[in-house]
Each structure stands twice: as C-alpha cells, then as structure tokens.
Design goal:
By secondary structure, the protein is α+β, with helices and mostly antiparallel strands. Helices cover about 20% and strands about 20% of the residues. It has helices at about 1-15, 20-40, 65-70, 205-210, 260-270, and strands at about 45-55, 75, 80-85, 85-90, 100-105, 125-135, 135-140, 170-175, 180-185, 195-200, 215-220.
Length: about 300
C-alpha cells in the first residue's frame, strides 16, 4: 500500500505543477470528440450517408428514397414493358375503361400487417377507384385509356402513412420547419447498411456538406465541376432518361408562329457539355424506340 500511496502523491504533485497543460489537453480532446461526432467520423461502417439537392416533404420524397421504402403494383422491365409486381395480374374490359387488379397472396407491409386493397389510395384524374374485396382494386375510367397500368409504377404506401413493402423502413425524420433535412432508413435485413439521407437546399450547400464530411455520396448534381477532384473522390455521371429539359415556343406569337423560325432557333440551341440530346420520342432503353425514326432536327 505504501508504494501505491507514493505513486498517487507523485501523480497529484505533477498535476498541481502542470494544471494548465492538463486542462488544455482535456479541452482539446473534448473539442476533437465533439467535432468527430458532428462530422460522423466515428460512425459505424454499416452506415451510408447520402446527400441530395432539393426541398422535400413526406408527400413528395424523391424516388431514390421511396423506391427503397416500397414498390409498385406493377413494374417495368429494362425495355419499359409493364409486368405484374405486387399483383398477380389484371383484367380489362373491351373498351379499356375498367381495370381490375388482384393482389398476390401473403403480402405484408413493413410493420408486419397484411396488405389489403382498402389500405391503398390512388389519385388518378377522371378515375373512380373501388375495392370489390380485400384483394382486388377496380379502376373505372370515364374515357378509354389502355396504358393505365403504367400509372401504377409508383411505390404504394399504407393510407396516410409512409409504411411500404420495400427492404427499408423509416427510423427517424428530422425537419427544418416543414421541410425534411434528414431521413434515416433501417433495413429489414441486418446485412444491409443503414442509410442516412441529407437534403440540401442548393448545390453550393450540398458541396460544402460533402467537403465537411457530412455525407459520403452526393447525388443529383447538375454541374460535376463543383466537386473538387482528388484521390479520395470518385465522380460518376449517368444520364437520367426520366427527366428532360424542354424549350416551349408560344406559337400564337406573330414571329414564333412561323415554323421555319422555330426550327432555326432549335438548330441554334447550344449543346450542353456531356448532356444527351432528346432527338427521339422515346429513350434508348424503351421498348417502343425506333432508331430509324426521323430525328427532330434532321
């Protein structure tokens, strides 16, 4: 015990003589720990932090999030053809004004409750939606519309909630006033990573967040040059065929009603670097695309 008491006395004596240095080291360590926690430097390797540009609420979350939370009644294959997904199939009458979809057996929401047709809510103009029974959804249209199944590609959710059928469920939502700033998705399968989505109001703010380490991935940037290129950053550009930028001419205008003038403007439209020209009614991967069709500007 004498030796232990001696070591304790020596330690206290050292601390009294160097109290300022000890306090400075403790303060510095506390600051570093707070900064690391703020920047998620000690986050678990099974967490992926993703940044996106845009302002969103619960009713208009981006497809990158909703597609993880749920799936649609139907799905589109790589060529764009519509096939059954959560439904076993559908029946349509002769004039394509009534469509009856039948849900598959043993379907469950992410909260482990069984999916019923009455759980579903659809908003399609000039269409009456009813539920003949718990497994069927009937669409009655005022006018014939054969492509109606293509309107059911969007992920479905339990009425009034963000409970879906996908591999992920919402764990937490953070907001600034009415807009979502962060949403955390937890996977049903423990082998899948937890996803932290952060939403930034502008590309400038998003790039700053990326540089500070708030996110590991930044999606949806319009200008790749805003991201500093170095050995720790990898840039990948991919054409999003679900979006198109279009210039519309007011054809009732005394000048623009002339077709030749409109065509001249089209020819003079500057080409945007690394962007693809929409020179066909359909994207390259769509089943109805015809490469031999006349180009818009030819």
């Amino acid at each position: 015990m004498t030796a232990v008491r001696l070591y304790i006395l020596i330690l206290f004596g050292y601390l009294r003589r160097n109290i300022r240095c000890v306090v400075a080291v403790l303060v510095a360590a506390a600051i570093l720990l707070l900064a690391a926690a703020k920047l998620n430097l000690f986050s678990h390797s099974n967490i992926v932090r993703i940044g996106m540009v845009g302002t969103f609420q619960e009713h208009n979350l981006p497809s990158e999030v909703t597609s993880l939370l749920s799936t649609g009644l139907v799905k589109a294959d790589l060529s764009g053809r519509i096939t059954p997904n959560l439904v076993s199939g559908w029946d349509v009458n002769n004039d394509a004004t009534q469509f009856k979809f039948k849900l598959k057996d043993n379907l469950y929401w992410s909260d482990n409750t069984k999916i019923k047709s009455t759980d579903l809510e659809f908003s399609i103009p000039n269409t009456e939606v009813s539920n003949p029974n718990e497994k069927e959804v009937l669409f009655k249209l005022k006018q014939s519309y054969a492509p109606l199944p293509s309107l059911l590609l969007k992920p479905i959710f339990k009425k009034g909630k963000l409970t879906g059928t996908g591999p992920y469920a919402i764990s937490k939502i953070e907001k600034s006033r009415i807009f979502i700033t962060k949403i955390i998705l937890v996977a049903k399968d423990p082998k899948l990573p937890t996803l932290h989505f952060r939403f930034y109001p502008s590309e400038k703010v998003a790039v700053t967040g990326f540089n500070l380490g708030e996110v590991q991935v930044l999606m949806g940037l319009g200008n790749m040059k805003t991201i500093p290129q170095n050995k720790l950053t990898r840039l990948k550009q991919k054409t999003d065929y679900s979006k198109i930028v279009t210039i519309l001419f007011h054809t009732s205008d005394s000048i623009l009603k002339n077709r030749s003038i409109r065509q001249a403007f089209s020819y003079q439209t500057p080409k945007v670097e690394k962007e693809e020209i929409a020179n066909n009614p359909y994207p390259p991967n769509f089943w109805a695309r015809d490469e031999s069709a006349k180009k818009y500007l030819s």
